[in-house]
């Protein structure tokens, strides 16, 4: 086995204090990037969670709709016109809107209503841990998420409360349907949701379209666009992208997360570059000796790159453990940090890239070494 | 048939520095080192010894003049080509040893082969043999900090000879050693210089090592000012043995 990795390892561990500084730099950088990107992924998922869980090929939305939570109204006539378009199998209305939840103790808290037809529900609560989505057909039935028990002062299935002075009963409880706005989602039958949100009986927020088997979604979308006026017809992917772009970039939240991640990368690169450079300077005599005894430039570069890679592996391993702790600690919060396997691989590549780039300054330094200096030291 | 010197410098001129600080370190120097002999290059500080050693060691290129290695010119070689020439032909022994403190004696020696891309089991074996030859068979796993100055210089010598270099260049190899260790090192270098395939050039201003040399070349102010053949200790012993 070549001595280059051994030399790199020994150089790295020879000065423990510098190694600690290097690793702290990498860990700080990668943890910061992980959290920022984890929040970004989590945020992106949360802002499109309803669209992702809806059973729809196409969405008919009010013109100018920016995101799912943008409450404008459509007329039922549009639904009937949509149903007359070739390739449309169904067009189910969905009502969304804000309402007031009155707790048993008399307190009020805002909620976000989602109402769909219980007989043809295209957006039903999921991950139910108690009760049943079919129970929403019962007059006054609602579904809430367990994470909002405190906010809604609810403790169990069957509890009563009021929405807009109308009595409701919790007949389904989900786990993990959380809103990034912190306003609890409450599912109900569409007629009840209309009543709670003050929506007229002939209005709906969206129509969720399923196309007939074998029909081309894009063709149907284009026919709907041609047939319907004053509305927009979007595929699920288009609506998802629009919602995500609005929340991530229209509000600046995504840019802020990216900026944080970029800052982490820059800080990490600078710290690693500085420590590697300083380590190289300290071992300049040894590199000059290597050069004097005839080592090729690439051999010396290898030693430095190995040092950078070793630092990357150590730093990434520690950062991964911290990242995992953060994921577990935030799992039940309003905005959990999400780390996907792909993200983990990308972060490892990013760490390696960052460390190798950091080695450039050190490599440039050794490239200028005069081997004859060994005679004067 | 005449055998070409292991290394030969012909009419070497070297300027160092720039502008007002520009000085002529070597003024048309010629020096040849042949296999099977130890040549001492002696001179006061600033005489140009180290500059000449750097040029012979293919670390510096002369301003003018020619360096022949085994009869072949190396003029015009770029830094990477010079590095290749060094690793394949030249072994170095430095005044302050220049061992790697984080590597064992064995790995320090093996490094000379490793930079050639030879990291085989044979390389390991050759390194052990080189260490055994310099009397450090029992200290292979020792780190430089665990070795005396004399032992460290022996490791450096083992590193210089492990690759079968045709020329060994030693820069003040005894300067950092007490007289006992300095003597031992010179005995070792003299032994190495007996190999007809290998020449040894020692730069020094230590008169105590003169008896070990076959030839003494004196340099002053960038010029060779004298050269003499010497009766070496080794030769003397041989002669005495023969007489007996």
Molecular structure report:
The complex is a heterodimer of chains A (377) and B (244). Chain A is an alpha+beta fold. Chain A has 2 domains: 3-46 and 252-375, no CATH class; 64-229, no CATH class. Chain A is built from 12 helices and 12 strands. In chain A, the strands form 2 sheets. A 6-stranded mixed beta barrel of chain A has the order 3-4-9-6-8-7. In chain A, strands 2-10 form a two-stranded antiparallel sheet. In chain A, helix 9 runs parallel beside helix 12. The mean pLDDT of chain A is 89. With 244 residues, chain B is an alpha/beta fold. Chain B has a domain at 7-95 and 166-243: 3-Layer(aba) Sandwich (Rossmann fold). Chain B has 7 helices and 10 strands. Chain B has helices spanning 49-56, 79-89, 105-114, 121-133, 149-161, 179-192, 233-243; strands at 7-16, 23-33, 38-42, 64-69, 72-73, 90-93, 167-171, 199-204, 215-220, 223-229. In chain B, strands 6-7-8-3-9-10 form a 6-stranded mixed beta sheet, with helices on both faces. In chain B, strands 2-1-4-5 form a 4-stranded antiparallel beta sheet, with helices on one face. In chain B, helix 3 (105-114) crosses helix 4, helix 3 (105-114) packs parallel to helix 5 (149-161) and helix 4 packs across helix 5. Chain B starts with 6 loop residues before the first strand and ends with a helix. The chains are: A alpha+beta (377), B alpha/beta (244). The interface between A and B is medium-sized, with 28 and 34 residues.
């Amino acid at each position: 086995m070549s001595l280059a990795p051994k030399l790199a390892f020994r150089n790295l561990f020879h000065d423990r204090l510098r190694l600690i500084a290097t690793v702290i730099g990498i860990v700080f950088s990668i943890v910061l990037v992980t959290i920022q990107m984890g929040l970004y992924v989590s945020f992106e998922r949360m802002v499109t969670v309803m669209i992702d869980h809806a059973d729809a090929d196409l969405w008919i939305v009010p013109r100018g709709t920016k995101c799912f939570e943008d409450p404008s109204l459509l007329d039922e006539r549009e639904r009937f016109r949509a149903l007359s378009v070739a390739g449309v199998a169904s067009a189910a209305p969905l009502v969304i809107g804000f309402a007031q939840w009155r707790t048993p103790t008399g307190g009020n808290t805002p909620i976000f209503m989602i109402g769909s037809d219980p007989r043809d529900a295209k957006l039903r609560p999921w991950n139910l841990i108690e009760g049943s989505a079919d129970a929403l057909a019962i007059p006054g039935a609602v579904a809430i998420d367990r994470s909002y028990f405190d906010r809604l002062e609810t403790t169990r299935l069957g509890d009563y409360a009021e929405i807009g002075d109308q009595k409701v009963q919790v007949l389904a409880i989900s786990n993990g349907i959380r809103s990034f706005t912190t306003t609890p989602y409450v599912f109900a039958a569409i007629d009840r949701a209309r009543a709670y949100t003050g929506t007229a009986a002939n209005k709906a927020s969206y129509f969720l379209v399923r196309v007939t088997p074998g029909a081309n979604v894009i063709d149907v979308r284009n026919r709907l666009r041609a047939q319907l006026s004053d509305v927009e017809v979007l595929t699920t992917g288009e609506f998802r992208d629009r919602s995500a772009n609005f929340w991530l970039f229209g509000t600046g939240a995504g840019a802020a997360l990216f900026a944080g991640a970029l800052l982490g990368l820059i800080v990490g690169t600078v710290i690693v570059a500085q420590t590697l450079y300083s380590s190289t300077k300290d071992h300049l005599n040894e590199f000059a000796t290597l050069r004097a005894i005839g080592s090729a430039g690439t051999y010396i570069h290898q030693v430095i790159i190995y040092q950078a890679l070793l630092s990357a592996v150590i730093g990434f391993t520690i950062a991964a453990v911290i990242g995992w702790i953060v994921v577990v600690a935030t799992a039940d919060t309003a905005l959990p940090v999400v780390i996907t396997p792909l993200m983990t691989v990308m972060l490892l590549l990013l760490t390696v890239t960052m460390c190798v780039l950091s080695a450039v300054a050190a490599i440039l330094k050794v490239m200028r070494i005069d081997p004859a200096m060994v005679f004067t030291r | 048939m005449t055998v070409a010197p292991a290394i030969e410098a012909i009419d070497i001129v070297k300027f160092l520095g720039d502008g007002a600080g520009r000085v002529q370190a070597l003024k048309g120097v010629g020096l040849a080192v042949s296999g099977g002999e130890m040549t001492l290059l002696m001179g006061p500080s600033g005489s140009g010894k180290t500059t000449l050693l750097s040029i012979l060691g293919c670390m510096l290129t002369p301003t003018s003049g020619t360096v022949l290695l085994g009869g072949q010119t190396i003029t015009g070689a770029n830094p990477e080509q010079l590095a290749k020439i060094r690793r394949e032909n030249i072994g170095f022994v430095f005044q302050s040893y220049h061992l790697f403190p984080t590597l064992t004696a064995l790995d320090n020696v093996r490094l000379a082969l490793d930079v050639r891309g030879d990291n085989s089991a044979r390389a390991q074996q050759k390194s052990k043999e080189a260490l055994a030859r310099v009397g450090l068979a029992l200290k292979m796993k020792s780190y430089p900090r665990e070795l005396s100055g004399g032992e460290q210089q022996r490791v450096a010598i083992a590193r210089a000879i492990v690759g079968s270099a045709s020329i060994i260049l030693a820069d003040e190899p005894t300067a950092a050693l007490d007289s006992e260790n300095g003597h031992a090192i010179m005995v070792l270098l003299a032994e190495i210089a007996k190999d007809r395939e290998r020449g040894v050039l020692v730069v020094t201003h230590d008169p105590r090592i003169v008896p070990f040399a076959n030839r003494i070349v004196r340099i002053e102010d960038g010029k060779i000012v004298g050269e003499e053949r010497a009766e070496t200790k080794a030769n003397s012993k041989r002669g005495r043995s023969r007489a007996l």
